[in-house]
Specification:
Blueprint (H helix, E strand, L loop, with lengths): L2 H24 L10 H8 L10 H12 L21 H13 L10 H18 L6 E5 L2 H19 L15 E4 L5 H9 L6 E2 L10 H9 L5 E6 L11 H10 L3 E5 L13 H4 L7 E5 L11 E5 L2 H8 L28 H35 L4 E3 L7 E6 L2 H14 L5 E5 L2 E7 L7 H17 L5
Helix pairs in contact: 1-3, 4-12, 5-12, 6-7, 6-11, 8-9, 12-14
InterPro entries: Aromatic_deC, PyrdxlP-dep_de-COase, PyrdxlP-dep_Trfase, PyrdxlP-dep_Trfase_major, PyrdxlP-dep_Trfase_small
Family: Belongs to the group II decarboxylase family.
Keywords: Aminotransferase, Decarboxylase, Lyase, Pyridoxal phosphate, Transferase
Length: 462
């Protein structure tokens, strides 16, 4: 074996050793990092050395230096920010993606990874009950996936009015952008970056579901070209919009309908949630994250558009040096990137590993864990569950905001459980987003027990 191969082997062996040590520690180590960013900079900051170092030694140095600043996000008791874990097949496939180092923008130079992604896309559409000929792009996350869909929607409603969004951009009318009052910040950012601006909100009910009557009134104000954003899974309550009614109202006005389903779109894979997702497949576009509910390593968002031709017209890249087959779109025609890693390969791996039944069991299991948390929290004196727990989100509060804030801080400092603090309906909450495949009955029990200890320590419960 030549020296180059040996060097890779030694470096990868070191990475493998550190990775296994990390994974083996994740379930029981304190979830919080020991050092904050400034502490880590104090540990890492130095002048760039004049001389290089052995690759394996560099890996050792990196792993040892970084460990105090790592959050155990893969813990089954990590509930922050709607972040999933990683299935073994997905993680291993992601390592292969890095080793193969295929720039999966075009089908011609990277046929293997492009084909794997196309199969993964077909499987996703089938699982989620979406039109089988939809365009699918693998983006960095729900933010970039939402942006890809919103840009496509913006252009489509302009074309429907006879304007070319490229050549007629200066004389084209402004596109109206509407959403419910609980619209997620990633959709707001997508509206800004697409030039439509932040969405005008039309109201929502107490759980965050869009006010359909408010949407109807807003649409009736004029006949401007319009994009409407709905959501599958409110970030606080987990609630789903009434897709059947909202899409029907939007269709009457000729609007494009986009669904932000960062974590909630996966509910469409389970028959158990058919009532929540009814009508969802009638939208024009959908965005989700595979690194949330599906438990694929970061990063992997998915942009889906019913009309693939509209998607490629808006996002497609063309240059004399780029290989292309006129009859088939390329991966870079469906996301706002020319160069990217083969993010869809770990998606293929996890779907192949789980099969349809496994995906359904994953989705149902996450929802069961959220229900279990809610049931346990309701038994703790002084604490209330504020939302209707319909999917994977649980919002917990004490009787006053100061106590709730203190509970969140206590949990994050204690280290057994990590949950985000937020504000919902004017109240401070501790938000538990169940996203990790490992959050089983034992993890639920330990979480409830830890919250109960925290409430007692802070004098919340008597």
């Amino acid at each position: 074996m030549d020296g180059t191969a040996d060097e890779y082997r030694e470096a990868l062996d070191a990475a493998h050793r550190h990775a296994l040590a990390w994974l083996e520690s994740t379930a029981e180590r304190p979830i919080r990092p020991d050092l904050d960013a400034e502490g880590m900079l104090g540990r890492l900051r130095r002048e760039l050395p004049e001389e290089g170092a052995d690759a394996a030694a560099v890996v050792d140095e990196l792993a040892e230096a970084a460990e105090p600043g790592l959050m155990a996000m893969g813990s089954p008791r990590f509930y922050g920010f709607v972040i999933g874990g990683a299935y073994p097949a997905a993680l291993a496939a992601d390592w292969l993606v890095s080793a193969w180092d295929q720039n999966t923008g075009s089908r011609q130079p990277t046929p293997a990874t492009a084909a794997v992604e196309e199969v993964a896309a077909a499987w996703l559409l089938d699982l989620l009950g979406l039109p089988g000929d939809s365009g699918v792009g693998f983006a960095t996350g729900a933010t970039s996936a939402n942006l890809s869909c919103l840009v496509t929607g913006r252009d489509a409603v302009l074309r429907a009015r006879g304007f070319d969004p490229v050549s007629d951009v200066r004389k084209a009318p402004r596109v109206r952008f509407l959403a419910g009052a609980a619209v997620h910040t990633s959709v707001v950012l997508g509206g800004r970056l697409s030039g439509m601006g932040a969405p005008r909100t039309v109201g929502a009910d107490a759980e965050g579901r869009i006010d359909v009557d408010g949407l109807r009134r807003s649409l009736a104000e004029d006949d401007a070209p319009t994009v409407v954003a709905l959501q599958a899974g409110d970030v606080h309550s987990g609630a789903f919009d009434d897709f059947t009614s909202a899409i029907a109202v939007a269709r009457e006005a000729g609007a494009w309908v986009h669904v932000d389903g960062a974590f909630g779109l996966w509910a469409a894979a389970s028959p158990r949630f058919a009532a929540l997702t009814a009508g969802l497949s009638d939208a024009d576009s959908w965005a989700t994250d595979a690194h949330k509910t599906l438990n694929v390593p970061y990063d992997c968002g998915v942009a889906i558009v019913r009309d693939e031709a509209a998607m490629t017209a808006s996002l497609g890249a063309h240059a004399s040096y780029l290989p292309a087959v006129a009859s088939v779109s390329d991966p870079y025609d469906r996301v706002a990137e020319l160069s990217r890693r083969a993010r869809g390969v770990p998606v293929w791996a996890v779907l192949r590993s789980l099969g349809r039944r496994g995906v359904v069991a994953l989705v149902d299991g996450l929802a069961d864990a959220a229900s279990g948390l809610a049931e346990g929290f309701r038994g703790i004196d002084g604490l209330d569950v504020l939302n209707d727990v319909v999917f994977t989100q649980v919002c917990l509060a004490a009787r006053d905001d100061a106590s709730t804030a203190a509970l969140g801080e206590w949990l994050r400092a204690e280290g057994t459980v990590w949950a985000s603090s937020s504000s919902w309906h004017g109240r401070t909450v501790v938000r538990f987003a169940v996203s990790n495949r490992g959050t089983d009955a034992e993890a639920v029990h330990r979480t409830v027990e830890t919250v109960a200890r925290g409430a007692a320590a802070l004098g919340i419960s008597r």
